[in-house]
Automatic annotation (TrEMBL):
Phylogenetic classification of the source organism: Bacteria, Bacillati, Actinomycetota, Actinomycetes, Kitasatosporales
Name of the top EC class for this enzyme: transferase
InterPro entries: Ptrans_KptA/Tpt1 (IPR002745), RNA_2'-PTrans_C (IPR042081), RNA_2'-PTrans_KptA (IPR022928), RNA_2'-PTrans_N (IPR042080)
GO biological process per UniProt: tRNA splicing, via endonucleolytic cleavage and ligation
Protein name in UniProt: Probable RNA 2'-phosphotransferase
UniProt EC number: 2.7.1.-
Protein family: Belongs to the KptA/TPT1 family.
Species of the source: Streptomyces monashensis
Keyword Phosphoprotein in record: no
Protein purpose: Removes the 2'-phosphate from RNA via an intermediate in which the phosphate is ADP-ribosylated by NAD followed by a presumed transesterification to release the RNA and generate ADP-ribose 1''-2''-cyclic phosphate (APPR>P). May function as an ADP-ribosylase.
Pfam families hit by this protein: PTS_2-RNA
Length: 186
């Protein structure tokens, strides 16, 4: 029973951190630096002041236990690894992608993707996975997953810029439809 409660608390803290480090730091009075970093002590104080007390031990556990490594700690600072809707410069150098990357989605999104390609929506970049398995897990968060292959090699040759975050997520501004490979018959 305790393990189940601990796991629920870990998920709750992770979601709280994602919301306030990626999207709405101002809601709890935080001002990230241009690279998205905030002081851990300031985050803990702000969370407590806004009715969500979290200990440094819980925060360290969430950072260490998160299978997607959503957060990075540098000394006394923390930031989300990617997925921001606020303006940040993660300082990631351009990287040469593998020939193919993958994107997990759901069937109801396919018509829009066929027409417009992959767009960042409320984020700064489109998130791509290096393998089908990860893309399948990502797509499964919203329903029955559909995995699209992205001809990243051709995109790169055509001048599209890619970055890779510390946790292995590939980022690019958009993926035009011509670089997408859809599964099966339409």
């Amino acid at each position: 029973m305790k393990d189940e409660h601990d796991e629920r608390r870990t998920v709750k803290v992770s979601k709280y951190l994602s919301r306030h480090l990626r999207h709405q730091p101002e809601r709890i009075g935080l001002t990230p630096d241009p690279a998205g970093w905030v002081e851990i002590d300031a985050l803990i104080a702000a969370a407590a002041a806004h009715g969500f007390p979290v200990t440094r031990e819980e925060l360290d556990h969430v950072v260490a236990a998160n299978d997607k490594q959503r957060f990075a700690v540098d000394g006394d600072r923390i930031r989300a690894s990617q997925g921001h809707s606020i303006e940040v410069d993660l300082g990631l150098p351009a990287a040469t992608p593998p020939p193919y990357l993958y994107h997990g989605t759901v069937a109801r999104a396919l018509d829009a993707i066929r027409a417009q390609g992959l767009r960042p929506m409320n984020r700064h970049d489109v998130h791509l996975s290096a393998d089908r398995e990860t893309a399948t897990r990502v797509g499964a968060r919203r329903g029955r997953p559909v995995v699209l292959a992205v001809d990243a090699g051709a995109m790169h040759r055509d001048g599209h810029v890619f970055h890779v975050s510390a946790n292995g997520v590939w980022l690019t501004k958009a993926v035009p439809p011509r670089y997408l490979r859809f599964p099966g018959p339409r």
